[in-house]
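We modelled the chain as a single entity of 302 amino acids. Its sequence is:
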Amino acid sequence: MSNVREIKRRIRSVKNIAQVTRAMQMVAASKMRRAQEQVLATRPYTAKAWEVLTHLAAQRGNQQEMHPLLTRRSAITTTGLVLITSDRGLCGAYNASVIRSTLGFMQKLGHPAHLITVGRRGRDFMVRHGGQVIAEFSDLPPRPSVLDIGPIARTAIDDFLTGKYDEVYLVYTEFINTLNQRPTIRRLLPITPEQVDSPVMRKYIDAAPVRVAGGYIYEPDPQTLLDVLLPRFTELQIYQAVLEALASEHSARMVAMGNATENAKDLIGQLTLSYYRARQEAITEEMLDIAGGAEALMSAKG
């Protein structure tokens, strides 16, 4: 009977877990829909801003005189990485995939890399494994605005301008669809006229190489204009990456909790079958004990 009680206790426990995972799946689905709407709404504007940036970077003349954010360093000795992960777990391989991509990229660099982490999961992993985390940001709002991203962008831009980094990369998970999210590494600074490698953003950005026939005419002057536009557009790229990462996180969590719920249902079925078998065995043993006792009484009377 103790085995039967233990199985019943396990069935109740698994049912409670299934209720929790089901609720988490529904919450993640709701958040994913909102995040998906937000990321799809901002993609065209972000893509056009990236085109403007790359055209500016392709202008003829001295890029150093135009703006420091357009300047390529002659020797790359230090790289900055803006790593975007989640604050919480229970989202399948979402965090592990982007962290694995980051580690592989850092190994290929051949020189030191400093990390600006967005999200506790990436920060905790890098700190435990000796990564050089120089700034960390966590607990972003569920629906962040550009103002919430401002400190992240300012840290990356200031460190690049002061020479702490010779280049800066964004590392995040790009939202492709509900079942497919891809870890992505993208150069953020210096701004260079490179072809966009993202299958999602390629829909919005012309894949042809940037060719500029002549220079732009700036009003009031290039320096004043670019001092305002380039930091804002760089901030916008980080904002878009955060939105992509949020949509990917909620999608991954929805799928993971859905799988957990289905696994719990399968386990309940297996435990229920085991319960019935154990109960049948217990009843059979009791009947055998009764029959044996009755036979013993009959023998004693005889």
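As a brief sanity check on the tokenised model: Residues 222-301 form the longest helix (80 residues). Confidence is low (pLDDT under 50) at residues 204-210.
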